[in-house]
Amino acid sequence: MIEATDLQKSFDGVAGNKKQRVMAVKSVSFQARDGQITGLLGPNGAGKSTTLRMLATLLAPEQGDAIIDGYSIKTDVLAVRSHLGFMPHNAGIYPRLTTRENIRYYARLCGIDAKTANQRVDELIHRLTMESFADRRTAGFSQGQKTKVALARALVHRPQTILLDEPTNGLDVMATRGLRKIIRQLADDGHCVVFSSHIMQEVAALCDEIAIISDGTISMSGSLDDLLHKTQQRELEDAFVVAIGGEL
Amino acid sequence: MSVLILLWKEIIDNLRDRQTVFYALLFGPVLLPLCIGGALVAGLKQAAVSFDEPAALAVAYAERAPNLMEFLKANNMDIELAPDDIQASVRQGDVPVVLEVPEDFASALRAGQPAPLIVHVNDSDKHSAKEARKVSTLLNVYGQTLNALRMQHRGINPSVFNSVDITLQDVSSNGFRGQLLASLLPFLLIVAMVMGGFYLAIDTTAGERERESLEPLLSLPLARHKLVLGKYLAVLVFVMLSSVLTAISVFLVFRFFSPELAGGELSFDAQTIFTAWLLASPLTFFISAVLMSVAAATKSSKEAQTYLGLLMVFPMAPFFILQFVQIRSVNTTMALPMLSQYQLLEQVVLQDALSPTHIALSVIGTLLAACLLLFGAVRLYSRERFL
To answer: What ipTM was assigned to the predicted interfaces of this complex?
Structure first.
C-alpha cells in the first residue's frame, strides 16, 4: 500500500551556459492499493522514474511524503526498503555472476539465511521459468532473460510492495505477455504493484488503477473506465491526451 | 554479516574478471619485480667484478710466461688455450677476452725492459669489457709486484715512488647503488598495492554505477556504511594479496643477488622482507581507502581510471624524490603515509636501526589517514548525486 502526498523533487540542470534548477517532480499525490496493479502513465521526462526513485528511498523528497505499508519514506528508510521490491528500468544485474548467484546475493544481503535463500532462489527460478539459464553467467543474456533475473531479485525478500520502472522496455511480444502474467499473479497474490510505462495498450491491458503523470504532476487518476468517463473519450490514448492538456 | 556477503560477492565477481586478476595478481606482484628488480640486479651483477669466483681466461702462448700463469692461477683464473683466430673469436663473443703473450715477453723481462702483454677485448660488449677490466687489474697487480722486486734488487725502497697515499673512506653504510636498491622494495610493494586494488575499486563503485546495478543495490534494506565497508574489505583483500605476492617475488628476484655488489650492508633475506612487508602493511588500509574514495567521487569508470592513473604518480614520487633529496627521518615525515614507509623500508633493507617512535608514528599516521578517507567514502556513498 502506497500513499504518496505532494512529492516534490528538483535537480541542478544546465540551460545554455547557466546553471538552473529543474523541477523534475512538482507535486505528485496518488494511492496504490494492495492486490491491485497501479500504472504510472506518462510521456518521457514526465517524472515517472524520479517518483519511483523517491518511493524506493534512493532520492529524498524536498516536499511531501509517502507512506509505504505504514512507514514513511522520509523517516523509516530501512523499514520501507525491506517492504519494497524495486526493479529499475535497466535490469542492472551482475554479468559475471550466474542467474542463481545474482538472486542469492540479494537474498543474503536482505538478511535471509543461506538455506532459506537457496529455497527461495529455486522457487523463483521455477516460478519465472528460468531453469534453462539458471546456472549461466548473465553476460550476453537477452533483454527478457535479464528482466526476469532482475524481477526475481526484486522479489526474493518477499516484499509487500513492488515498484517496476518500465519493466517491458525492450522485451519482445512473447516476453511481454509472459511478464504481464507474472505481474497479474503478483497482484492476485495480494501485493501492491506499481509500474511505470509510456505504452498505452500495456497500461490499459494490465492496470486496475491508472495515474497519468505529466510535467511533474498527476493530472488525472482512476480506473480505466473512470478516466474514459472523465475525459469523455473512448480510447485511453485520447483520454491521456486530454488529461495532459493536449489537443486531439 | 551483510558486510561479509558483500565482500565475498566482490571477490568472486572480480576473480572472474581477467583485467582485475592480471593487474592484481600478475602485473604488480610478478611482472614489475621481474622487469625492474630483475633488470637492476642483472645490471649490477654485470657491472660488478668479482675476484673470488673462479673464471676462465683464454691465453695465447701461455708457455712464454710460466710465472705469470702461476700468478693468475693463484688468483682464481683457469688458464685455457686461446682459439686460433683470436680477434675474430673475441669479436664474435666466443671468448670474452684473450690474453696474448708476445714472443719477446720473456726477453724484455730479463733485460729489465717493459714486457709487452696484449689483452684482446671487444669494448662494445659489456661482458667482454668487464672481463678485460678484471684481467687488467690482475696484470697491474702482477706488474707492481715485479716493479717492487726490481727496485729491491737495485737497493731502492719501492715506497719511494709512492709520493701520495690515497685512502677513500665511504662513511655511508651504503653506496648510491645501495640506496637505489633499498628504495626499490618500498617502490615495488606500493605500486603492487595500488595496482592490486585499482580495477576492483573502479569496478565496485564507478563500474557498478555504469552497469546500473547500483540503484537496486542501494534500494536494499542495508545501511550505506555497511555497503562501503564490504566493498572496502574486498579491495583490501586484493591489495593485501598483491603485497604478499610482491614480497615473495622480490625475495626470489633478490636471491640471485649478492649484497656486497651494492657496496654496503644490504639485505634481502626472508626476515628482512617479512619485516619490510609488516612495516608496509598499514599502507594496504590506506591505499584501499584512497582507491575507494577516489572511485566513489568519480562518475564513470573512465573518469575513475583517469584520476586513479594520475594518482599512481604518488606512490612513485617518494622513490624519485628520495633519489635526489636527502630527507632526514624526523618525526613529522614519519607520520606521513607512503613517505614514512619508504624511509622505514630503506632502513630495514640497509639494516639500520629502527626507531620504535618512528614505527609507531608511521602506523598511527597511516591508519588515521585511512580512517578519514574511508569516512569520506561513506559520505560520498550517502550523497544522492552518487547515483
So the answer is: 0.92
Please name the member of A81, A97, A109 whose beta carbon is closest to the beta carbon of B13: A97
A10 touching B, CB under 8 A? no
Closest to A80 in 3D by CA, of A52, A118, A101, A38: A52
Full pLDDT tens readout for chain A, 248 residues: 999 999 999 988 777 777 888 889 999 999 999 999 999 998 888 889 899 999 999 999 999 999 999 999 999 999 999 999 999 988 889 999 999 999 999 999 999 999 999 999 999 999 888 999 999 999 999 988 999 999 999 999 999 999 999 888 888 888 888 889 999 999 999 999 999 988 888 888 899 999 999 888 998 999 999 999 988 988 888 999 988 888 77
Please say if the pLDDT value at position B354 is more than 90: no
Distance of alpha carbon A178 from its chain centroid, rounded? Answer: 17
Cell of residue B362, nine digits = 608511521
A143 close to B (CB below 8 A): no
CB A5 within 8 A of CB A160: no
Q: Which three cell numbers stand for residue B4?
A: 561479509
Angle between helices B38-47 and B126-153 (to 10 degrees): 30
Residue of B nearest to A9 (CA): B384
Q: Is A78 on the interface with B (CB under 8 A)?
A: yes
CB contact under 8 A, A110 and B5: no
- List, by residue range, all CATH 3.40.50.300 domains of chain A: 1-83+160-221
Tell me if A67 sits within 8 A of A2, measured CB to CB.
yes
- Domains assigned to chain B: 2-46+174-386 (no CATH), 49-161 (3.40.1710)
Give the pLDDT confidence score for residue B240 in this predicted structure. Answer: 94
Q: Give start and end residues of each alpha helix (H) in A110-235.
A: 114-127, 143-155, 173-188, 200-206, 224-231
Does the pLDDT of residue B79 top 60, yes or no?
A: yes
Exposure string of B309-343, with b = 16+ CB inside 10 Å and e = fewer, is eeeeeebeebbeebeeeeeebeeebbbbbbbbbbb
Contact A2, A61 (CB under 8 A): no
CATH number assigned to the domain with residue range A1-83+160-221, chosen from the 4 options 3.90.1570.10, 3.40.605.10, 3.40.50.300, 3.10.100.10: 3.40.50.300
